[in-house]
Q: What sequence folds into this?
């Protein structure tokens, strides 16, 4: 069932767990994410990058239809909406959340851009996610980690100025594969949690370590983004099957089934470590 992203995150904040936001790129990945959520009786946030689809509007409408077919809470969120056009397309497409990512701008300009969309989205029930402190790419982790970390007191001021519904913070994580072991700053996360009253988002879940993610969700992250690890596992599973030389399972018509199963396998693992298993509040009770 389709719900607002904020509703999902408020339940998570109250319950002390996180909700996975897997990155999807086609109907098949959406379907296996929903299958995983149903199997674990878990809420889920479907994250979509503008670059992962040719048409945000039509893709959003398709996800909405699929979301209404399942009896678990489902939100649809634009991930890293870095321009107004992408954010507006997501709204027209029926997304229930948009990330207005202006973290590359100066502090006050970032907050002002987020505030603009907050005023637009509040009356129509669309959740606005912002980012303060930037998330490094895996290959630049050693050079950028310290520079990008979120300052707790400035985060408080940013939330007040922007009016964002939830906040993505930089606590030592990275997007994609790390060049070294991830160094997550749990103390910084605790301070941010104490400084702001909105739900927090962990970006760069892939390869950040299941124990690290579980601890962050216990401290105060309500949304965990993850994509690359699931994509890569799908490709790896396909290549392993192909190496066996079985054309029946790796042909152009059937090979996708191997990939989606590998993708789903990782989605389930991250869902469990976030602690959302069994947290479906929509289930029918006799």
A:
């Amino acid at each position: 069932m389709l719900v607002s992203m904020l509703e999902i995150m408020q339940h998570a904040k109250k319950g002390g767990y996180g909700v996975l936001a897997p990155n999807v790129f086609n109907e098949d990945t959406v379907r296996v994410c929903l299958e995983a959520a149903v199997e674990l009786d878990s809420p889920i946030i479907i994250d979509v990058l503008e670059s992962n689809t040719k048409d945000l509007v039509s893709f959003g409408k398709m996800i909405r239809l699929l979301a209404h077919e399942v009896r678990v809470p489902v939100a649809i969120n634009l991930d890293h909406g870095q321009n107004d056009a992408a954010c507006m397309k997501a709204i027209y497409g029926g997304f229930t959340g948009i990330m207005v990512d202006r973290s590359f701008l100066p502090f006050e300009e970032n907050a002002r851009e987020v505030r603009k969309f907050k005023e637009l989205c509040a009356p129509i029930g669309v959740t606005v996610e912002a980012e303060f402190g930037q998330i490094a790419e895996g290959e630049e982790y050693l050079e950028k980690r310290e520079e990008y970390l979120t300052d707790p007191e400035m985060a408080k001021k940013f939330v007040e100025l922007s009016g964002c519904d939830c906040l993505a913070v930089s606590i030592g994580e990275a997007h994609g594969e790390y060049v070294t072991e991830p160094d997550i700053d749990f103390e910084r996360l605790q301070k941010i949690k104490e400084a702001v009253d909105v739900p927090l988002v962990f970006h760069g879940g892939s390869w950040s370590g299941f124990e690290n993610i579980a601890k962050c969700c216990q401290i105060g992250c309500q949304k965990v983004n993850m994509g690359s690890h699931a994509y890569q596992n799908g490709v790896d599973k396909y290549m392993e099957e192909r190496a066996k030389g079985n054309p029946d399972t790796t042909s152009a018509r059937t090979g996708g089934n191997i990939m989606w199963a590998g993708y789903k396998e990782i989605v389930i693992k991250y869902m469990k470590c976030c602690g959302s298993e069994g947290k479906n509040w929509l289930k029918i009770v006799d």
Q: What stands out?
A: The chain has a mean pLDDT of 96. The beta strands are 19-24, 44-49, 74-81, 97-100, 127-132, 136-137, 166-169, 174-175, 200-202, 221-226.
